[in-house]
Design brief:
about 0% strand; mainly alpha; iron; 4 helices; Succinate dehydrogenase hydrophobic membrane anchor subunit; metal ion binding; about 150 residues; 3 helical TM bundles of succinate and fumarate reductases
Length: about 150
């Protein structure tokens, strides 16, 4: 017969740690979740509720938004916070459900690789986006692009 610990006994930590990483991770998830709500609903409102709604979203719409720094920073914050928030959540799930150390290592390596690829490519797109690409037809370009 196996003895079961008293459920009302205080929790005793098995391994002493000197890091508060999990605490800071938990606090980040709460703060980034609130900030992401503001960023995402602001993004949806501007893209879907103003103007003609979803029918007005095209290359010229995005080029007009990204012509100034405000929307670039907005979208960059949204990308980075969403990716860090999601990666942290999946990391927690991997820690909870992957029982073997090797499996946990491989899953986390794949997760961090995917995070890095998406963040680097997304950041490059935001900062290297050219609203007036050469060779594009004038009817697809925003009004501030010079005529070719």
């Amino acid at each position: 017969m196996t003895a079961v610990d008293n459920p009302r006994a205080p929790y005793v930590r098995q391994k002493a740690t000197r890091s508060n990483y999990e605490l800071y991770s938990w606090m980040f998830m709460r703060a980034s979740g609130v900030l992401l709500l503001v960023l995402i609903f602001g993004h949806l409102f501007v893209n879907l509720m103003t103007g003609e709604g979803v029918h007005s979203i095209d290359f010229a719409f995005v080029a007009g938004k990204w012509a100034g720094p405000f929307w670039k920073v907005w979208d960059l914050l949204m990308l980075w916070l969403a990716m860090i928030h999601g990666t942290n959540g999946v990391r927690t799930i991997i820690n909870d459900y992957a029982s073997k150390d090797g499996t946990r290592l491989v899953l986390k390596a794949l997760l961090y690789l995917a995070f890095t690829i998406v963040v680097v490519l997304g950041t490059l797109v935001i900062f290297t986006f050219d609203p007036c690409p050469p060779g594009a037809t004038q009817d697809l370009l925003p009004s501030f692009c010079p005529a070719v």
